[in-house]
């Protein structure tokens, strides 16, 4: 883990995505529920940011606002330092070239009747590669697959449901590798895969950032994962950021009671990946 922590400082780059007083209220009157409550943030180019909070703290609502899938009730989102304008379809499409997402359930994200190579071809077409010769497209798809340790030749003609959850999530990362957005928003992308796939996917996300300089916003309820992977963490409780800062500073020296509680739920945060201490031989009962 020590080598993971000695990385280039991405927290001082140009501004990529910011928020000022970003708020989302569902319902009205006595039933009003403030899911996201006046949050401020500055995410920089190439920064790996985790937003950490328990279920119901407002993470997905915030993600949807960042993606432009849900309106903000109050406040403002800025893209590259300027107020984000997604008021028309054309402007929204332009914004979506800059920000892409990976969700919890990779199977829910696309048409299961689309073969895998069609999924990757779509990405090349979306990036303006429609008229490239087919061999060039195959070369690009092969490169994207090998980036996530998949073999393109074995995937052509397969359908998404023929892959495992971990393979599907890696395919989603291959998609992002081809689309090369400025920002990747990953909402609990490892929560439906096994522990082994989880570690692989996290490392692939880090490689993606290192190779492309993409800003990655990683949403998780797991503060141990956030520590492992991020430059910066924002801790979210009841729609508010109760604490934020460099991952080491926040997690090794938490100030907010909520952060302390999240950490105490991970008794061995430094040994998150060490399973050797688990005694599997205990069959005396
Ligand atoms: N579409 C919606 N309509 C009404 N309430 C919602 C909606 N989406 C989320 N909420 C509420 O907003 C709060 C935050 O939910 P969510 O953003 O999904 O949290 P998280 O992703 O951290 O689990 C919860 O109280 C949830 O019930
Ligand atoms: Mg959620």
Main beta sheet: strand number and arrangement?
Answer: 6 strands, mixed
Briefly note the CATH topology name of the domain at 12-108 and 183-268. Rossmann fold
Basic shape:
globular
Radius of gyration: 20 Å
Number of strands: 10
Corresponding CATH architecture of the domain at 12-108 and 183-268: 3-Layer(aba) Sandwich
Total helical elements: 11
- Which ions and ligands are bound to the chains? adenosine-5'-diphosphate, magnesium ion
CATH class of the domain at 12-108 and 183-268: Alpha Beta
Low-confidence stretches: 274-285
Counting helices, strands and paired strands, the structural category is: alpha/beta
Quaternary structure: single chain
Strand order of the largest sheet: 6-7-8-3-9-10
Distance linking N and C termini: 36 Å
Query: Can you say what the CATH homologous superfamily of the domain at 12-108 and 183-268 is?
Result: P-loop containing nucleotide triphosphate hydrolases
Percentage beta strand: 15-25%
What's the SSE pattern? HEEEHEEHEHHHHEHEHEEHH
Mean of residue pLDDT values: 89
How is this structure best summarized?
The protein has helices at residues 2-5, 59-67, 89-98, 116-129, 134-147, 152-155, 165-179, 195-212, 223-229, 247-252, 257-264; strands at 15-26, 33-44, 48-52, 74-79, 82-83, 99-102, 183-187, 215-220, 232-237, 240-246. By secondary structure, the chain is an alpha/beta fold.
């Amino acid at each position: 883990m020590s080598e993971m922590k000695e990385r280039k400082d991405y927290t001082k780059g140009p501004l990529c995505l910011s928020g000022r007083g970003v708020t989302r209220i569902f319902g009205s009157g006595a039933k009003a529920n403030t899911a996201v409550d006046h949050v401020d943030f500055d995410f920089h180019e190439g920064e790996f940011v985790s937003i950490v909070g328990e279920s119901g703290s407002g993470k997905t609502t915030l993600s949807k606002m960042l993606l432009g899938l849900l309106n903000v009730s109050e406040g403002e989102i800025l893209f590259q330092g300027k107020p984000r304008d997604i008021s028309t379809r054309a402007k929204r499409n332009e914004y979506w070239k800059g920000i892409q997402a990976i969700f919890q359930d990779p199977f829910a994200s696309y048409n299961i009747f689309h073969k895998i190579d069609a999924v990757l071809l779509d990405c090349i077409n979306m990036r303006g590669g429609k008229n490239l010769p087919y061999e060039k497209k195959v070369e690009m798809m092969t490169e994207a697959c090998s980036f996530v340790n998949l073999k393109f030749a074995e995937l052509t003609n397969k359908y998404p449901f023929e892959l495992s959850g971990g393979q599907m999530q890696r395919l989603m990362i291959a998609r992002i590798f081809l689309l090369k957005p400025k920002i990747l928003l990953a909402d609990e992308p490892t929560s439906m895969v096994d522990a082994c796939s989880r570690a692989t996917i996290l490392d692939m996300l880090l490689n993606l950032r290192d190779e492309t300089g993409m800003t990655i916003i990683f949403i998780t309820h797991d503060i141990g994962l956030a520590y492992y992977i991020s430059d910066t963490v924002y801790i979210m409780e009841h729609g508010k950021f109760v604490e934020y800062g460099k991952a080491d500073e926040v997690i090794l020296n938490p100030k907010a009671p909520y952060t302390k509680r999240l950490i105490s739920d991970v008794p061995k945060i430094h040994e998150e990946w060490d399973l050797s201490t688990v005694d599997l031989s205990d069959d005396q009962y």
